[in-house]
Amino acid sequence: MTTYRISQLAERAGVRPTTLRFYEQAGLLPAQRSESGYRLYGDDAIERLGFITSGKRLGLPLEEIRDLLQVWEDGLCTDVRHRLRPMLATRIAEAEQRATELDAFTERLRQALTEIDGPPRPGRCDPGCGFLHHQHDPQPTPIKLSPPRPTTDNTGDNGTTPAPIACTLNGSDQAERAQQWHELLDHAQRRDPIDGGLRFHLPAHTAGEVAALAAAEQQCCAFFTFTLHLSAGELQFDVHAPDDAAPLLADLFGTPN
């Protein structure tokens, strides 16, 4: 049987070695140890990683993937399908809910666009402009791209409803996301404090990866805001969070140099 060290398996599977170590800690990918203490994997690890990747592409949390792996190891294909079915039904319901919310939000944007394409009113913009809500109108429901979580009422003084200080990722996925940020931001040449957040100075070639991870973060933690500015071969990446989210900001993005 072929054996692989962690760097060899990572290269073959197209993942980072730190991801393999995280999967081991999460109980997804066991590893043997050589006499020198190196992690060793067999050919079955490649198939196991394919199974994990398939589960993540379906949006399954790591806890559910771990449950499925146990069934996959000990049972038949029929058993795996039986266990997977309710998981997929839940994901479909969540996706349909998000699609409904997105459709409603898209219609709201179209209505606003129709209003501003009409003849402008003289003077300042007021509720008569159409796209502004009258004070007696109900506040529109903010768009949520993930299942709602219970939160306290933190409506601001201006009547708007800020994004709730809550993350829709479960514990294992939060740990994985934090690890992804730490790996990426290790490339930072400098990190400075700014009002309400942090500023990272990164090599320009990281811009695509930073943007993709920031977009993913917005899907589950909408209270974070990100700004990317690329110039002179450097990426300036700003992260802002409300005061109440300062501990989460530090956990994910660290502290200034």
TrEMBL record:
Residues 3-71 form the HTH merR-type domain. Residues 139-150 have a biased composition (Pro residues). The lineage of its organism: Bacteria, Bacillati, Actinomycetota, Actinomycetes, Pseudonocardiales. It comes from the Bacteria. This is DNA-binding transcriptional regulator, MerR family. Residues 133-162 are annotated as: Disordered. It holds the Pfam family MerR_1. Keywords: DNA-binding, Transcription, Transcription regulation. Residues 151-162 have a biased composition (Low complexity). GO terms for molecular function: DNA binding; DNA-binding transcription factor activity. PANTHER family: HEAVY METAL-DEPENDENT TRANSCRIPTIONAL REGULATOR HI_0293-RELATED (PTHR30204:SF94), REDOX-CYCLING DRUG-SENSING TRANSCRIPTIONAL ACTIVATOR SOXR (PTHR30204). InterPro entries: DNA-bd_dom_put_sf, MerR-type_HTH_dom, MerR_fam.
